[in-house]
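Ticket #4471: structure export looks truncated?
Reporter: QA, pipeline team
Priority: medium

Steps to reproduce: submit the single chain below to the structure queue and open the exported record.
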Amino acid sequence: MKKLALSLLLSTAIFGAIAQTHKTQNIIIVTLDGMRWQEVFRGADSTLINSKYTDDKKAVQQKFWAPSADERRKKLFPFLWSVVSSKGQIYGNRDKGSKDEVANPYHFSYPGYNEIFTGFPDKRMNTNDAVANPNMNVLEFINRQKGFEGKVAIFSSWERFPQILSVGRSGLPVYSGYADVKAPGKNTRLEFLNEMQHEVPKYLGDSTRSDFITYEFTKEYLKQNKPRVLYMAFDETDDMAHDGNYKAYLERAQQEDGYIKTLWDMVQRDPMYKDKTTLLITCDHGRGDTSLDAWRGHGADVQHSEQTWFAVIGPDTAPKGEIADQSTTYHKQLAQTIAQLLGVNFQKNAGHEVGEAITTVIK
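Actual output as written to the record:
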């Protein structure tokens, strides 16, 4: 009992010290749905470029191909492999021993996002249907903390996030699919985007909007409302892969890297955010890799689709670059990592299982 009490006392003291010394006051989270670690770390795949899944092979080779993986990945993700790799950390390159995975057994979107934000790979969350999530999420918890009330916002292309983040209970402002922004005092640009999103072609269907519109909403909301916690969820990388369009899959990934760069540049010019903001980039699941056709899919029956990645940059994260040690991180650890970066303890207050924070992310 004495050893247990001492252990708890030390844990409390260590967490208290971290909470007092952290520099992160704001967090931006970005997800690229279904983006494989293989392209993140190796760049464009020559087998897929030269397959039936790429129509204009010459154009894709000119835009994305290079002799080495380092060159290819810089072509595909120039921001990730310049700014983040030099000033932050990138996890999940299995070629160098770093493994990142989802802990849930399903390997598709709702269970993946539930795991990221609740820290709990709940086996009940086994559908993409509009089922309200019973688990408290870290965004909901942060929104209740002093100084964060009303300072959390979520923008997503996929329409399922109101259920994933359980807005009926959490009260979070979640602008998903074609939902209009209803923030009080919204400026003319946000009003224009509300109108425009209903006029543009709905090439992803009647419920999922384009990532460009999601990005424009996020960027304008950031300028006007100055949230302390902002989540932007892209969807088109997953859509293009399911469609078997490798050219579009690569183009959307590169485009989204550019969107993230623009937001980060905005942050670095704003005194409220500069040197006080952490950026976390990740995905909700991986994709198959055991055959030419496997990259299109994911799920419990698709081998290796649990394999994922994440990147982080901010004032509390040491600039270690690409992680190359023999370690495994899990997405169930991200919720507590996000909370701990902001100096709060989600794990203690969630009311359910929450994975431990990834200590290497925090100096």
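Status: closed, not a bug. The export was complete when the record was re-opened. Leaving a note from the reviewer for reference: Confidence is low (pLDDT under 50) at residues 1-10.
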